[in-house]
């Protein structure tokens, strides 16, 4: 009985970790072919740790991120840059993208190029009411494949605050979502 | 010459009775010396104790400092990775935005051509 309980507890503890990792893609297969690899694995503990070192008032960029970090549970990034095109299979990418069709995921951007050497990008968001629970960005370029997976609660106004920082494009929220935006941001807009 | 030397030695080594009260004085001094000997560790003990405390405190401080430094390094590394992740996310979102804008432009041109 105790052993069964231990198994259940272990499974429960491991579940978020398994869910956090990008699935259905053999990342290990790509690594040896890549000329350059970037991997970022930040779980909840690491994010808390990073939050302690993010600049407070006076550093607007880091301050916006610090507020965001409180409810994040993980940030995972994979970037593989190749010497030549065709080092990864587009069908593998499609298979990977398909897991974000349904299951509470909303397709925000799905841009596909049929031209040879064109880019394919996808932005997927999991929402619970007004709150974003997960964000996945996939960019498949001829010589580069990149996936960003952000897990945790993000309020739309927090996302808007990040616009224009760290190269993140300005995000124009609908009027309803803007009502909840922070006063400082509203003041700037006025 | 030899006889004189022998006589001198005999005189010097002749058994003499101990002075009056010698044994009493010796016995009286014995406890004092023993007490002094016992007192020495007592005076040494606080010094050793302070040394041990100082050593323990030093070790604790060093361990604490080590842990804090380790946490600092991990935190800095986590921050560096997070900022990198945000920059990559920014680049990818910009790419997606540009691609959507490009598709919209193409669609606009198509629509305009259709109108003509």
Overall form of chain A: globular
Distance between the termini of chain A: 63 Å
Distance between the termini of chain B: 155 Å
Question: Could you report the average pLDDT of chain A, rounded to the nearest whole number?
Answer: 78
Assembly status: heterodimer
Q: Using only CA atoms, what is the Rg of chain A?
A: 19 Å
The count of β-strands of chain B is: 0
- Tally of contiguous helical segments of chain B: 2
Name the chain pair whose interface involves the most residues.
Answer: A-B, 34 and 27 residues
Question: Strand share of the residues of chain B?
Answer: under 5%
Structural class of chain B: mainly alpha
The secondary structure category of chain A is alpha+beta
Helix % of chain A is: 25-40%
Query: Topology as H/E string of chain B?
Result: HH
Helix coverage percent of chain B: over 70%
Poorly predicted parts of chain A: 8-22, 180-190
- Characterize the main sheet of chain A: 6 strands, antiparallel
| Widest sheet: strand ordering of chain A | 1-2-6-5-4-3
In terms of topology, how is this protein built?
The complex is a heterodimer of chains A (190) and B (116).
Chain A: H1 2-20, H2 27-30, E1 36-43, H3 44-52, H4 60-69, E2 72-81, H5 90-98, E3 105-112, E4 120-128, E5 131-141, E6 144-154, H6 156-162, H7 175-178, H8 183-189
Chain B: H1 2-12, H2 22-115
């Amino acid at each position: 009985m105790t052993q069964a309980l231990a198994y259940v507890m272990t499974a429960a503890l491991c579940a978020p970790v398994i869910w956090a990792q990008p699935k259905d893609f053999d990342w290990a297969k790509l690594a040896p072919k890549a000329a350059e690899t970037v991997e970022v694995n930040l779980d909840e503990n690491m994010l808390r740790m990073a939050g302690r070192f993010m600049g407070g008032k006076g550093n607007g960029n880091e301050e916006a991120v610090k507020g965001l970090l409180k409810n994040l549970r993980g940030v995972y990034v994979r970037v593989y840059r190749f010497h030549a095109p065709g080092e990864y299979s587009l069908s593998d990418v499609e298979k990977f993208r398909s897991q974000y069709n349904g299951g509470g995921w909303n397709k925000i951007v799905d841009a596909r190029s049929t031209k040879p050497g064109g880019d394919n990008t996808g932005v997927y968001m999991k929402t619970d009411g007004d709150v974003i629970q997960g964000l996945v960005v996939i960019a498949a370029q001829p010589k580069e494949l990149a996936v960003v997976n952000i897990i945790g609660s993000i309020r739309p106004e927090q996302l808007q605050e990040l616009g224009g920082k760290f190269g993140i494009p300005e995000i124009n929220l609908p009027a309803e979502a803007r009502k909840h935006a922070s006063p400082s941001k509203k003041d700037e807009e006025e | 010459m030899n006889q004189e030397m022998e006589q001198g030695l005999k005189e010097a080594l002749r058994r003499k009775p101990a002075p009056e009260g010698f044994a009493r004085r010796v016995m009286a001094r014995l406890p004092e010396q023993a007490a002094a000997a016992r007192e020495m560790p007592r005076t040494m003990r606080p010094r050793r104790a302070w040394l041990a405390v100082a050593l323990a405190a030093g070790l604790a401080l060093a361990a604490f400092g080590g842990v804090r430094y380790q946490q600092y390094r991990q935190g800095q590394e986590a921050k560096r990775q997070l900022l990198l992740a945000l920059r990559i996310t920014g680049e990818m979102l910009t790419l997606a935005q540009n691609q959507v804008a490009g598709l919209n432009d193409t669609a606009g041109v198509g629509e305009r051509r259709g109108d003509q």
